[in-house]
Write a structure and sequence with these properties.
Protein name: Response regulator
Subcellular location: Cytoplasm
Strand order of the largest sheet: 2-1-3-4-5
GO cellular component, one term: cytoplasm
GO biological process, one term: phosphorelay signal transduction system
CATH architecture of the largest domain: 2-Layer Sandwich
Oligomer: single chain
Strand content: 5-15%
CATH superfamily of the largest domain: Reverse transcriptase/Diguanylate cyclase domain
GO molecular function: DNA-binding transcription factor activity; sequence-specific DNA binding
CATH topology of the largest domain: Alpha-Beta Plaits
Number of strands: 10
């Protein structure tokens, strides 16, 4: 699409040119018109005009002056000149100023169309070439950046390549820092990354020549001018409301120091987890950290002794004490990493014990293996605490289940041993030292029937055996199985068996007699 400006002090000429141009088979975007060079200059400055068709002779500012002014202002625009025979000398000057051709008055339709199409074709060719060159240049820059990134991360390269790369930006490589920017984002936080915004801010702080981006993911890593104050970039990020942690190495000289600088900046980045309140981590912040330590094994043991108890508050407090920032900030980051591994290992050992009882439930150990998967140390400690409390819940349920099973077994044993005595729920719950209501619910949940129903069934089972195998009177049987009255026994027996105890005894005797006759007949 092309934008064309027609410039002529005579309105009928402007209108005629507009009419012809609007009928041409070209990708015309917008047609502008101006009655003088001064008016045309304003339009050229304000709009993206690619082609100006202008008369040479005009009041105030003629066509030549307009061409000279846009050339001086370095505005890229093409010109077609309109002139009469007597203005041929002016037309020659216009050609010298870069005009793509001139049209003699009166202007012929076919001449105008041919000239405009020729200029438009030239503009399109130049734009395509510019795009290709820009793409080639961008690919070359990206290739150079990837090579630099690989060299930074430890890949070997030739001495000639190092010297050549240094010469491409000698001012930067003679005095630079390596800077890592880690944007602070919550887990699952929506929204796009601010990488491009951070790049723009870095260019503004250091200038195009003082900032070279080497890596964009997962962190933004760049070589920056060491002469610029280390607080300048964090302050600029804060002003733009971008939450990012910066890690900056000391001053470096020469490209050969780049791999060592990368190791150093990654070490600083890891230490940024110890200092979540600092926006910029420098070598000075970690130089005095202790390099030797002893893990708090006793505190860890005491913490895990709480697992399976009703002490979630103490567990939370124990985690906070073990991972207290005053302790972590005394030591190299390796202490924190080793502490995390120790806690995860103990979690795994405890989980193995109760895993068969957990069903489909499980702890998420994988989420705790790498501290640096989290936005910060606080987020990791929160996730660790959550898994520890889940383990405590599972363990508590497991221990309660085991303890309840033992209590129930003892209660059932006691019932079968004491069914013939006066017995009620309170006596059995006291025997196993459980709360009356709790024992009642526990018994029904695990046995499938209430205590009274279970005791009745045990007594009646014993009664049926006595009725079938002995000659004891019914009233005697009732007392022998724990009933305090003949009436209550017979009522309970009838409700379950749908017959009286005497009828049951008769049937059992008839059955025995029938079996005896059958056996005799087979002899």
């Amino acid at each position: 699409m092309i934008n064309i400006l027609i410039v002529d002090d005579q309105k009928h000429i402007r209108d005629g040119l507009q009419a012809m141009l609007s009928q041409f088979p070209i990708e015309l975007n917008t047609l502008y018109s101006a009655a003088s060079g001064i008016e045309a200059l304003q339009l050229i400055r304000q709009h993206g005009i690619q082609l100006v068709i202008t008369d040479i002779r005009m009041p105030d500012m003629d066509g030549l002056a307009l061409m000279a002014q846009t050339k001086e202002e370095r505005i890229k625009v093409e010109y077609l000149i309109i002139s009469g025979y007597s203005d041929f000398a002016y037309a020659q000057k216009a050609i010298a100023l870069g005009a793509k051709g001139y049209l003699l008055k009166p202007i012929k339709r076919e001449d105008l169309q041919a000239s405009v199409e020729h200029v438009w074709q030239e503009i399109q060719t130049r734009q395509a070439l510019s795009r290709n060159m820009e793409q080639i240049s961008r690919l070359a820059r990206e290739t150079d950046r990837k090579e630099l990134c690989m060299f930074m991360q430890g890949a070997a390269n030739e001495e000639a390549w190092i010297l050549h790369t240094e010469r491409q930006n000698p001012a930067l490589w003679s005095n630079y820092r390596l800077c890592l920017l880690r944007e602070e984002r919550w887990i699952n936080q929506p929204g796009a990354s601010s990488t491009h915004s951070m790049e723009s801010i870095a260019y503004r702080v250091y200038g195009k020549q003082g900032c070279l981006f080497l890596q964009r993911s997962p962190f933004l890593i760049m070589a920056v001018d060491a002469a610029v104050d280390t607080e300048a970039l964090p302050a600029a990020l804060k002003a733009e409301q971008i939450d990012a942690i910066a890690a900056m190495t000391g001053r470096k000289q020469g490209l050969k120091e780049l791999p060592g600088s990368y190791t150093q900046v990654m070490e600083l980045y890891r230490h940024s987890y110890l200092f979540p309140d600092k926006r910029c981590i420098l070598q000075a912040h970690i130089e005095r950290l202790e390099q030797q330590w002893q893990l708090p094994h006793e505190e860890l043991y005491a913490l895990f002794q709480l697992i399976g108890t009703n002490n979630s508050g103490k567990i939370t407090q124990g985690i906070s004490m073990i991972f207290h920032k005053d302790v972590l900030q005394r030591y190299h980051i390796g202490y924190t990493q080793q502490l995390c591994r120790a806690v995860v290992q103990m979690l795994e050992e405890y989980e193995r014990v109760i895993r068969p009882y957990m069903g489909e439930e499980a702890l998420d150990m994988d989420c705790l293996r790498n501290l640096f998967d989290y936005p910060g140390i606080r987020d990791y400690i929160q996730a660790l605490q959550q898994q520890l409390l889940r383990l405590n819940h599972f363990y508590y349920e497991y221990k309660c289940s085991y303890r309840n099973k033992q209590d129930l077994n003892e209660a059932i044993r006691y019932i079968h041993e004491s069914y013939h005595k006066p017995l009620d729920l309170a006596m059995v719950s006291n025997h196993v030292s459980l709360n009356y209501a709790y024992f009642s619910n526990l018994f029904k949940k695990n046995v499938g029937k209430g205590f009274a129903e279970y005791l009745r069934d045990v007594r009646l089972d014993k009664a049926r055996k006595l009725l079938a195998e002995t000659e004891h009177k019914i009233v005697e049987v009732a007392g022998m199985v724990g009933y305090d009255s003949y009436k209550s026994f017979t009522r309970a027996f009838r409700d379950v068996m749908n017959m009286q105890p005497t009828e049951y005894r008769q049937r059992m005797r008839q059955k025995v007699e029938s079996e005896r006759h059958y056996q005799e007949s087979k002899r």
